Amino acid sequence: MNRLSLALAVVVAAGLAGCTGGASDTVAADAPTTGGSARGDFGPPQGEPIHAVLTSPPHVPPPVGRDHPAKVVVELEVVEKEMPISEGVTYTFWTFGGTVPGSFIRVRQGDTVEFHLKNAPDSKMPHNIDLHGVTGPGGGAASSFTAPGHESQFTFKALNQGIYVYHCATAPVGMHVANGMYGLILVEPPEGLPKVDHEYYVMQGDFYTTGKYREKGLQPFDMEKAIDENPTYVLFNGAEGALTGDRSLPAKTGETVRLFVGNGGPNLVSSFHVIGEIFDRVQPEGGTHPQENVQTTLIPAGGAAIVEFHLEVPGSYVMVDHSIFRAFNKGALAILKVDGAENKAIYSGKEVDSVYLGDRAEPNLKAVSTAAKAHAAGTLTRDEQIAAGKQLFTGTCSVCHQANGEGLKGVFPPLAGSDYIAQDPRRIVKTILHGLSGKVTVNGTDYNSVMPPMNQLTDDEVANIATFVLNSWGNPGGLATKDEAAAARAENPNAKQAEH
Ligand SMILES: [Cu+2]
C-alpha cells in the first residue's frame, strides 16, 4: 500500500466509525468499545442479595469477585459532626458514613443496587444523594431526600462501568458539598480490574472557613468565600495531615499502587501530581480508555480518575494539587511512604523532603495548638510560646535561615547570635510581618537581599516565632505578644521598610 492509499484507508475507516455511531473520534477506529449503558444490562440479579462492604478512606473494599449480576444492598448513613480540619482547628462536617470523603462503594457493572440512605437523628439538616453512576434523572437525588431520623430507599441498575463521584444535592447544594458531602462509587467492569498490590482512596475538596488558614478553634463555613471560589483549605481526605506523618499511605518497592482519586470540589479543578513518580497508567476522568506515562492528570470538580504506578525507589512520594500554593499554603498534600532497598542505578538517593516540605511532610503542630488553647484560656507561658514558635519556625523560616539559625553564608543572614536582633529586639515582629529589603549588616557581614513578608501567619503565630527566636541561640530573650503583632500588621509596611 502506498502512502496515499494508506491515508485514504484511515479516512474511510474513521468515516465508517462515525456512521455506525462509534465511539468519540479521540479513540482509534479499531479500539474496542464497551458499548456504554446500552450494553451494560446483563439481565436480572442472580443469587441471594449481597450487603455491600463499605470502607472509610483511604481504604477500598475488596474486588467483587463475581461473574454474574447480583442485587447489592448499600446502607449509608449521613452524620453531621465536628472533626479536625487542621491541627487545633475543627469544622462541622456533613458526612456520608462519618468521614470525608464518604464511604467507598464498590459494585459490578450490571448489578442492581438497592440504596438505603439514612439521616442520623441528631442531624440538623435534610440530605439526599446524587450518584454519578446512576442512569436516571437526578442520579437518585429526588428519590432520596431524607429528613433527620429518617431513611429513604431507591434502586438502580449500574449500567456503565467506571469510577463515579456521589454527592449530596440538597439546597443549598454548594454548601452541602463544601461541608464534605461527597465520595466515590466504583462500578467494576464485568471482568474486574487487574490485580495490584495496593488500592487507595484519595479525594480532594476545597473548604471555606471564616478564619484564616490554620486559625485555631471551631471555624464556621464562609458562604462569601465559597461563592468567590476562594478556599481557605484545599485538602485530600478532609483534613490537613489526613495522609501525612503516621497516616501516610504505605507501600514497598516492587509493588504497584492503584489510586482512586476523586475531586468533590465544590469549586476547584485538581491538577493531581505525585512528586517523583510518573503515572504508568491513568483512566482520565474515570473513563475506560487508559492514557500512559502521565505526569499530572486533571480531575474535574465532580470527577475522578484511576491512577496506577509501579514503585522502584524507596522514599516519600508527595501527592499534590500542582496548583502549587494549594499544596504548600492550603494543605493539599499527602504522602505515599515507600519502603525498600535503595536502587542507586535508578536514583542516587538523598532525601530532600525536609527542605522541600518543611513541617508539611509531618505536621507535628501539637505545641502550636497547645499554645493557642493556653492563649485563649489566658494562661499562655513563655515556654509554651517557645515550643510553638519552634514548630512554626521549622515550617516557615528554616528554609532560608536554616534549622540551627546559622543562615547561609552571603545569602541568608544568621539569626543565631545576630547583632541586628540584639540592637532592637522588638523589631523582629515587624521584620516577620513586613519582610526586609535593602542593605542590612549582621555580625559584620553585609546582606542586600529581600525577605518576603510572612503575613500569611496569624498574629499569635508571629508572636510565638518571634519569642522562639529571641530566646534561642544566644539572642537577648524577651517575649513578643499577639497584640504587638496585631499592631505591627496594622502599620503601613512600606513606611516601615523605609526605616532601614
Ligand atoms: Cu446534604
Automatic annotation (TrEMBL):
Cofactor(s) demanded: Cu(+); Cu(2+)
InterPro entries, per database record: Cu-oxidase-like_N, Cupredoxin, Cyt_c-like_dom, Cyt_c-like_dom_sf, Cytochrome_c-type_DH, NO2-reductase_Cu
Keyword Signal recorded: yes
A Pfam family per the record: Cu-oxidase_3
One Gene Ontology molecular-function label: nitrite reductase (NO-forming) activity
Note on how the cofactor is bound: Binds 1 Cu(+) ion.
Assigned EC number: 1.7.2.1
Reactions that this protein is recorded to catalyse: nitric oxide + Fe(III)-[cytochrome c] + H2O = Fe(II)-[cytochrome c] + nitrite + 2 H(+)
Highest taxon of source: Bacteria
This protein's UniProt keywords: Copper, Heme, Iron, Metal-binding, Oxidoreductase, Repeat, Signal
Start and end residues of each Cytochrome c domain: 384-473
Region of interest (Disordered), ranges: 30-67
Position of the signal peptide: 1-23
Oligomeric and partner information: Homotrimer.
NCBIfam families: Cu_nitrite_red
Entry similarity comment: Belongs to the multicopper oxidase family.
Name of this chain's protein: Copper-containing nitrite reductase
Gene: nirK
